[in-house]
Write a structure and sequence with these properties.
The complex is a heterodimer of chains A (282) and B (273).
Chain A: H1 4-40, H2 46-50, H3 64-94, H4 99-113, H5 116-128, H6 136-160, H7 164-172, H8 177-188, H9 190-205, H10 209-212, H11 232-240, H12 245-274
Helix pairs in contact in A: 1-12, 3-6, 3-9, 3-11, 4-6, 5-6, 6-9, 7-8, 9-12, 11-12
Chain B: E1 22-33, E2 36-47, E3 51-55, H1 62-68, E4 79-87, E5 90-91, H2 99-105, E6 106-109, H3 121-131, H4 142-152, H5 156-159, H6 172-185, E7 190-194, H7 202-215, E8 220-224, H8 228-234, E9 237-242, E10 245-251, H9 252-257, H10 262-268
Parallel strand pairs in B: 3-8, 3-9, 6-7, 7-8
Antiparallel strand pairs in B: 1-2, 1-4, 4-5, 9-10
The chains are: A mainly alpha (282), B alpha/beta (273).
């Protein structure tokens, strides 16, 4: 029989291992942040945010077009991904056991696991090839398609955390079913759904592959949805594989800005969850 | 005849069942979950402006019977109802009667408090008002109606300075009285209480019981309870259900002091359930 002491030793060892795993889980992010700050912070200046890229050989210049392009792409993607995703999530939560619900749930999981390059090719096939040129719209649609399954599933999960008793309370007050779904169930889960939406935005903000054949990138200023558009991840990609030190430095700075954007969105998601009256369902 | 537990006091006012005008009449009411009947063939007349208790062991169909009275039973997938229910002369399962209209006139409060967590205290009380049709809208400004409902629920003094706080900041007992206020705000003629004190502490329970005692003056109350003492304390008439069947329905005084059915006697003297 094992002694109490040996049990304590095993217990201590196991707890130590879980601590180690917890540290290892966050280590990559911490290392990336440190590395990016070390390499990219020195190239960050106001110019980086307000100036256009300069030709090779000329010092300075920024990525104003890529920053605006990324925001525009996120906007288009959200316009597609949020309404469709939230609507589909509402359907899944309300009609949980219909054949269509099972099919939608399964397919959105498959879509979620689809390599993003495939989504890019798909958008190219339908939105770039027929019109003959790359466009911000095609890029936004590709990113939006990636958001849909993410938003659908988080919306469903969040709606299912709303207790049946609340639904019943609303019905018993004489709320019609649709109104119960919207003003009680959806509203109660809203903070959670907003968090899910922001996580989805953060997830697609840094996607590169779906943009390669859609938004394509642009060295010039453009905010037209019908023209190719610059995006931070694409710009980083182009600069990083170039042969010029100046561009390498800008790529690091771009990576730092991109990761900061994602961090900011994630922090916003946290704050939304904690907001007044929100998500306090137990 | 068995002597009852001394804790059970029968209210003096208890009227004989037959003398009161019926508010709710059920005829051969049977409610199913899928193919199995949770209650069978229940025919009963619930008197107006009185408190009627439904007692019985767990799983006897008390809540199901209650939920047939505001058509909440049918919201469960696979559930259906046979037979008739008439409330104040309206056949609530009749053709052309919508469950939504029924529920607007028959308030319900559940076992656990169910305040809407995203709404303030005020908005919770007004929740039913906002969806009521113009014709059924009670008179008075929304603020007046909210105050009146909270007064009737005995909660006004406690929350009058907290009307814009979140409803879930209230204690459990306050939340339950808030739910009663919410049900009262639309001025229903009937209010259904499904074990409203099951999750409350003794003090909150007492407050809710006093409230129910007051409510009988203006509305018809049907209360499901696990607690026989509670039924004896606050109800005028009592229905005893066993395995989905109505065993006995009588004035609370008669049912607890002179039960006609031996099963009722066994139950109230604690021999089973």
């Amino acid at each position: 029989m094992r002694t109490i002491r040996s049990r304590h030793v095993v217990s201590g060892g196991m707890i130590g291992l879980t601590y180690l795993a917890a540290i290892l889980a966050t280590l990559p992010l911490i290392l990336i942040l440190i590395h990016l700050i070390a390499k990219g912070a020195s190239s960050l200046s106001l110019d980086f945010f307000t100036r256009m890229p300069k030709p090779v050989g000329e010092p300075g210049g920024g990525m104003a077009n890529a920053i605006v392009g990324t925001l525009l792409l996120i906007g288009i993607a959200s316009l597609i991904g949020l309404p469709v995703g939230i609507g589909a999530g509402l359907y899944l939560a309300e009609k949980r056991t219909t054949t269509l619900a099972y099919a939608v749930r399964f397919l959105s999981d498959v879509l979620n696991g689809l390599p993003s390059i495939v989504i890019g090719i798909f958008a190219w096939e339908f939105l770039v090839r027929p019109v003959g040129h790359f466009s911000a719209l095609a890029g936004g649609v590709a990113l939006g398609s990636m958001m849909i399954p993410l938003v659908t599933r988080t919306t469903e999960e969040m709606l299912l955390t709303v207790p049946t008793s609340l639904r019943e309370a609303a019905l018993a007050l004489g709320y019609p079913k649709w109104r119960t779904s919207i003003s009680v169930v959806l509203r109660t889960a809203l903070a959670g759904i907003a968090t899910g939406a922001l996580v989805a935005v953060a997830r697609i903000a840094g996607e590169t592959a779906p943009l390669l054949f859609t938004a394509f990138g642009n060295q010039f200023w453009s905010t037209s949805v019908r023209e190719p558009i610059a995006a931070l991840p694409l710009q980083i990609f182009t600069y990083a594989i170039s042969a010029y030190d100046e561009w390498h430095r800008l790529a690091w700075a771009g990576a730092l800005v991109l990761i900061s954007l994602v961090l900011l969105i994630s922090i916003a998601a946290r704050l939304v969850t904690r907001s007044r009256f929100g998500a306090a369902v137990d | 005849m068995k002597v009852l537990a001394p804790a059970i006091k029968v209210p003096e006012h208890a009227p004989a069942v037959s003398s009161a005008k019926p508010c709710i009449v059920t005829r051969n009411l049977t409610a199913y979950f899928g193919n199995s009947a949770a209650i069978r063939d229940i025919t009963v007349s619930v008197p107006q402006q009185a408190v009627t208790a439904i007692i019985g062991p767990s799983g006897c169909g008390k809540s199901t019977l209650l939920r047939c009275l505001n058509r909440m039973h049918e919201t469960v997938p696979g559930a259906r109802v046979d037979g008739e229910v008439e409330i104040l002369g309206t056949a609530i399962y009749g053709e052309g009667t919508s469950p939504i209209a029924v529920r607007r006139h028959v308030g319900m409060v559940f076992q656990r408090p169910t305040p809407f967590p995203t709404m303030s205290v005020r908005a919770n009380v007004a929740a039913g008002l906002r969806i009521a049709e113009k014709t059924t809208q009670p008179k008075g400004s929304p603020d007046e109606i909210v105050e009146e409902a909270l007064q009737r629920a005995g909660l006004w003094a406690e929350v009058k300075d907290r009307l814009d706080e979140s409803a879930i900041a209230l204690s459990g007992g306050q939340q339950q009285r808030l739910c009663i206020a919410r049900a009262l705000a639309t001025r229903p003629r009937v209010i259904l209480l499904d074990e409203p004190t099951a999750s409350l502490d003794p003090l909150s329970t007492q407050k809710v019981e006093e409230l129910v005692y007051e409510l009988r003056k203006t509305v018809t109350v049907v209360i499901v309870t696990h607690n026989m003492q509670q039924a004896a304390r606050i109800s005028d008439s009592t229905a005893f259900l066993l395995a989905g069947e109505l065993v006995e329905f009588d004035s609370t005084r008669n049912l607890f002091t002179a039960p006609r059915d031996s099963r009722t006697e066994s139950y109230i003297t604690g021999r089973f359930g």
